[in-house]
Amino acid sequence: MRAPAGTQKAPSLMTRGLSHVAVTVGFEPTVGSTPTQLFESCTFGRSDTSPRESLVQPGGRVEPGARSAGASGIDGYDAEVAWSLRTPFTAARARAWRRRAQQPGELLYVAIGDSAAQGIGARRLDASYVGRLAARLERLTGRTVRVVNLSRYGARLDDALERQLPAVAALEPDLVTVAIGANDMAAYEPERFAAAFDRVLDGLPAHAIVADLPCFHFGDREQNAVHASRLMAQQVRERGFAFAPLHRVTEKRRGPQSFPEFTWDQFHPSALGYRVWESAFAPAVNRRAREVGAAS
What we know:
three-stranded antiparallel β-sheet
């Protein structure tokens, strides 16, 4: 089978040896040809390909991490995303969220985002910030919560626009959280980013809770994230959405004391780090829980 454009056919590890494995240091493979996030990944070649499912299944059931019809990929991946050592784990995580979406609940929580919303770095779904926010909503309202996690590993703003938001339109969620844009920092163009983010806001229900970007701690991407986060905060507030100050909360944790808050790649949060992420959303989720409770 011919490898998709922008990828390379993986060399045989048995015949070529590990010295021929392409190593990308410092970035996470993402949708398209631009690597993005800060960690080391070993890129072996192309992704697998298979016909995509519809985002919205018969009866209105949405598969989180599912794919739009007509494209190719597996478990929330595009054919353009290079296969890496992480792929089996991240694919399994996407399947776990799809199973979680099949569990019924009195309230519906929909999450939009990237690998952080998938909970990469935490061993259990419940230890991710999405899982923790779902538990918070249950605890505060006394009602069961169904979670539809539309996030995708490596997602950028374009992915939210093309794949995640169309699925939200088919649902009537009681809670929506949005945390996306960190993967756009590799090739940050302020005007283009602001325009894309504004279109994301166009597709959200009025009660959505929207975060800015996490702190990257150092380097050019942190400078980009600071600038982008200011733009995002302004846009969110001007549009009247609830704002989750993710950059401010994570920046306060900057320094050696934050080491346990990251998983082995020192980019994705650990279970402890996702508690920090939860705290950025907590005040707004608490208010939304009171609104939902008053309406019931």
